[in-house]
Every structure is written in C-alpha cells, then in structure tokens.
Amino acid sequence: QVQLVESGGRLVQAGGSLRLSCAASGRTFSTYAMGWFRQAPGKEREFVAAITWSGAVTFYTDSVKGRFTISRDNAKDTVYLQMNSLKPEDTAVYYCARTPGGTVYYTASYDYWGQGTQVTVSS
User: For the chain, give me the number of helices (H) and strands (E)?
Assistant: First the structure.
C-alpha cells in the first residue's frame, strides 16, 4: 500500500507564504501523477493543483493560478505546494493524493490520500 503524509500547514497572516510537503512511501512514486486538494469547513473538497510524474506538466484551479506552485522531487518521493499571497479564503485542510490515471481535477481519479494538513490564513 501507499502512505502519503502531508506536513507544513500552520497559521499564517494574509499575504504570507507557506510550503506544504507530501512524503510518499510504500510504492513506486515517480510513475504517478500527484495532486493537491483542499476542503474548507462546510464546503466540498476541491482541486487545487496537480503534477505529472515527470513534473513536465502542471495543473491549477483558477483561484490559485499565479499564487501557488506545485513541484516534485522524485528522488525524495516528495511533492510540494508553494503557496504565496495567501488569502483568508485559502483556509482549509490540504490533502495530497496519488492518481494512477484519469482526470486530475476530480477526486474519483485518485486512489491514495494523505491525512491532511491544516492551513489557516488570518485576516
């Protein structure tokens, strides 16, 4: 089985920056695309960003384009989400996930999920 562990979430002021990490273990990491999702209180889990196995292609939801950057280091079996210019509406639990294939925007495409890390952006 695959284990995914997110880290880096914390309280941060609006306009600040934060980098989340997702460490994978248990299976081959490099051959899978990876995604970041988030879920705010009272809202559905939504797609944030994704990256192909090689890192050559990335995907972002419109609300984070220009502010967030997804990257990966396959030698370390780790994927990152660099978040800049944070806004209160970015407050959510952030999850990383692995997809064996399919449309990266949808949760149904992913087979393993991390436990989540809390990001809170103060006004």
Answer: 0, 11
What is the torsional sign of CA 119, 117, 45, 68?
positive
C-alpha 67 chain-centroid distance: 13
Q: Judge residue 47's burial from the number of C-beta atoms within 10 Å of its C-beta, 0-12 exposed, 13-18 middle, 19 or more buried.
A: buried
The Cα 1–Cα 68 span in angstroms is 29
Residue range 102-111, pLDDT digits in tens = 899 999 999 9
Residues 7 and 96 sit within 8 Å (Cβ to Cβ): no
Predicted local distance difference test score (pLDDT) of residue 82:
98
Ramachandran bin of 49, using left for φ above 0, alpha for ψ from -120 to 50, beta for the remaining angles = beta
Residues near 46 by beta carbon (within 8 Å), at least 6 away in sequence? 37, 38, 39, 61
Mean pLDDT of the chain: 94
Q: Which residue has the tokens 């419109």?
A: 62
Looking at residue 30, what is its pLDDT?
63
